[in-house]
Design goal:
It is built from 12 helices and 16 strands. With 357 residues, the protein is of the alpha/beta class. It has a single domain, classed as NAD(P)-binding Rossmann-like Domain (Rossmann fold), CATH 3.40.50.720. The strands form 5 sheets. The protein has a 7-stranded parallel β-sheet with strand order 4-3-2-5-6-8-13, sandwiched between helices. It has a 3-stranded mixed β-sheet with strand order 1-14-11. Helix 6 links the parallel strand 5 and strand 6. The longest helix has 20 residues.
C-alpha cells in the first residue's frame, strides 16, 4: 500500500537525460508513447477522436496516439478536432499524419456531423477569462460536454477535468483522493464539476463508458507551475508562496496516463487523479531554481496551512511512477528558461486561492 503524498523537497535523483534543445526535440519527447500506452491501446480497437485538440496538451497527446498506432502497426485514424483559430497547430498535426477537422464545439449540429469513433478524448474547456465572461466558461465546460457525450454515447470517453474540483486540503494530509467529496472554489471550478456531472449522467442513463481525469498540474517546458516559478526567479520578481504547496507532472506522463484510461472507461465513470506523487514546497522550488539559475529568489507572503493538492496514489499503483522525475524536470526547465526557449503566454495561476481566473 502506497503512502499518500508527504511534503518533501524536489531534489530526487534526476535521470540524467539531456535537456531538449528545440521545440521539435521537446515535442518528440513529449509524444513518446510508453509501454503502458501501447498495452492499453491494444484493448481499444478503432479510431481515436480528440475533441479540443489545439490546446497546450492536445497536439502532443494526438501525436502520442499516432506514434503508438504506428508502433502497433495499426492504420486506425487519430482525428484532431478544434476551431484551429491559429493555423500553426493544425499544420503541425497534419505534418504528424493526424487528420484534422475544424469544428465549433459549441455548435450542436456541427458536433453531430463529426465522424464516428469508438474512442474519444475530450479536452475542450475554458479556465482563464471566467471572471470576465462566465457564460462562455459555462458553455464550454458544461454544455459542450453534453453535446460530445450525446454524440459519442456508444464510445469510450476519457474526459479531462481538474483537481480544482476538490477543496483546499491540509498540506500534511497527502492531498485529496478520488474519494474526497468535491467542494470547488470559484465559478471555474464549479463549472468543471458540472462537466463531470454531465458525463456521469450519460454513464448512468445511457451506459456510456467514461473515465474522468482530474489533472493538476501538467508541465511542458513552455508552460506550467515550474516554468512560472523559474521565470519569476530568473526575472528577479517576487515568488508568492501563500499557496505554498503544489503537485506537478510532466505533460508526457500526464498524456500517457490519460490515454491508458481509455481502457478503463466504465459506467459509472472511472475517476483518476493525474499528478506527481510529491507534495512540493513552492518556497523550496524557488530556492532550487535560484541555485540552478544563479539568482537569489525573492519570496513574498507566508504559506497557508492548506493548498490545492491531489493524492496520486491510485495513479502510481496503476501505472507506476512518472517517467520524468521532478528533479529531472527542474533541470530541463532551468536550462530552457536560461537559454530563452519558446514560452506560452499562459501562466497557470496556481497562486490563486479564491478560484478567480
Amino acid at each position: 500500500m502506497l503512502h499518500r503524498n508527504r511534503p518533501q523537497p524536489p531534489l530526487g535523483s534526476p535521470l540524467g537525460a539531456p535537456p531538449p534543445n528545440t521545440e521539435d526535440d521537446l515535442e518528440l519527447l513529449l509524444s513518446e508513447p510508453s509501454a503502458g500506452v501501447l498495452d492499453a491501446l491494444r484493448d481499444c480497437a478503432g479510431d481515436v477522436i480528440v475533441l479540443g485538440a489545439a490546446g497546450k496538451m492536445g497536439p502532443t497527446l494526438a501525436r502520442m496516439l499516432r506514434r503508438a498506432f504506428d508502433a502497433l502497426r495499426r492504420t486506425d485514424r487519430v482525428i484532431a478536432v478544434s476551431r484551429f483559430s491559429s493555423g500553426s497547430a493544425e499544420q503541425r498535426l497534419r505534418a504528424w499524419n493526424i487528420q484534422t477537422i475544424q469544428c465549433d464545439l459549441t455548435d450542436r449540429a456541427a458536433v453531430g456531423r463529426l465522424p464516428d469513433a469508438p474512442n474519444v478524448v475530450f479536452m475542450a474547456g475554458q479556465k482563464f477569462g471566467t471572471s470576465d465572461a462566465p457564460a462562455n466558461t459555462w458553455m464550454m465546460n458544461t454544455v459542450v460536454p453534453a453535446f460530445a457525450a450525446d454524440r459519442y454515447r456508444d464510445a469510450r470517453i476519457v474526459a479531462f477535468s481538474t483537481g480544482n474540483v476538490y477543496p483546499l486540503v491540509p498540506r500534511a494530509g497527502g492531498g485529496a483522493s478520488e474519494d474526497t467529496p468535491p467542494a470547488p472554489i470559484g465559478e471555474y471550478a464549479v463549472s468543471c464539476l458540472g462537466r463531470e456531472r454531465v458525463f456521469e449522467w450519460h454513464a448512468a442513463q445511457r451506459a456510456t463508458r467514461v473515465a474522468i481525469v482530474r489533472l493538476n498540474y501538467a508541465v511542458d517546458l513552455r508552460y506550467g507551475v515550474l516554468v512560472d516559478i523559474a521565470r519569476t526567479v530568473w526575472r528577479g520578481e517576487p515568488v508568492d508562496v501563500r499557496m505554498g504547496y503544489v503537485n506537478v507532472i510532466w505533460q508526457g506522463d500526464a498524456n500517457a496516463r490519460a490515454i491508458q484510461c481509455l481502457a478503463r472507461a466504465a459506467a459509472p465513470p472511472f475517476v483518476l487523479n493525474v499528478t506527481g506523487p510529491e507534495t512540493l514546497s513552492v518556497r523550496t522550488l524557488a530556492e532550487r531554481f535560484g541555485q540552478l539559475l544563479g539568482r537569489e529568489p525573492v519570496i513574498t507572503g507566508e504559506e497557508a496551512e492548506d493548498a490545492l493538492l491531489s493524492d496520486a496514489s491510485r495513479s502510481v499503483e496503476l501505472f507506476g511512477p512518472p517517467a520524468v522525475s521532478t528533479g529531472q524536470l527542474m533541470l530541463w526547465v532551468a536550462d530552457w528558461v536560461q537559454r530563452g526557449g519558446a514560452l506560452y503566454a499562459k501562466p497557470t495561476g496556481f497562486q490563486e486561492r479564491q478560484g478567480r481566473f
